[in-house]
Amino acid sequence: xxxxxxxxxxxxxxxxxxxxxxxxxxxxxxxxxxxxxxxxxxxxxxxxxxxxxxxxxxxxxxxxxxxxxxxxxxxxxxxxxxxxxxxxxxxxxxxxxxxxxxxxxxxxxxxxxxxxxxxxxxxxxxxxxxxxxxxxxxxxxxxxxxxxxxxxxxxxxxxxxxxxxxxxxxxxxxxxxxxxxxxxxxxxxxxxxxxxxxxxxxxxxxxxxxxxxxxxxxxxxxxxxxxxxxxxxxxxxxxxxxxxxxxxxxxxxxxxxxxxxxxxxxxxxxxxxxxxxxxxxxxxxxxxxxxxxxxxxxxxxxxxxxxxxxxxxxxxxxxxxxxxxxxxxxxxxxxxxxxxxxxxxxxxxxxxxxxxxxxxxxxxxxxxxxxxxxxxxxxxxxxxxxxxxxxxx
Length: 393
Fold this sequence. Notes:
single chain
């Protein structure tokens, strides 16, 4: 590689570390319902404002020897770990995509780093937004056993908007070749559009009070700042709460199937022409990925709860996989869901060998599954195509 390429790698790593510094703010403040922008960074022990020279990613933590300059209180290693991890993820994804070629990006006849500057940067941006969200929610989930849904919504909106805008930045044929971003066909677009209509109806019914939210009144987290014991949660009948979620999902399912059948019977050609517009195909492809990601987890949650009488998985996991599906598409996110348990089994195996049983939430395993699929998506699609071809014969 040229000197400029090496400088680009250093720059990407540095940007990743800076984003990691911001993720530390998100991890600490968001679940505590604090503003992400105000007040400026301060020491939680003494309250002194942290100056810019004490807030340089990686460097300041090492120079200060993990202690506050003013009160000498210890600074959690998490700050250093998140900054380093984010920098390595930013760098690693770029190297895997545009240097090693783990994913095949060919744009305007260019591959490798040249493809990055031809529009591959936009795909990289959307993927790195998702990975940043995964790092943040995994850290929060590990600490507090919850996933802030608002962060997942941010990634989902980025995926939907980005997939619709991508054809204006990258030639559409470069997207539909190896599907670096979701693209829908007429059938999946119709199912996604109907599901969106049904979701709006369900949300209106909830707002009107005609459908009750599941686990209404549950306290999802403690306030770590007040030092008080959390209030006791009300008792729930988990199977009943699962049935409430089924009721919420009924309009989504009915409208999705109904819209699909309507389009198929009344205006298949016109709909196909509309979805063939690259921006429309990208928009509905991302929307379908969102619903597919939510569906695989929500189905597991509801069926598991009804079968065992205990809440299975969390709604945060539903939104996490929905966000992933909006960025990487329906098939990859479904594969990621079935890969995640293998990471869980690996963790259990380590725990059994060390004889230290320490349960952790499922969000980090889902995140690892998503990251794995993002790297190996080309191979997964090749296998899927071979299977579909053999099945069609």
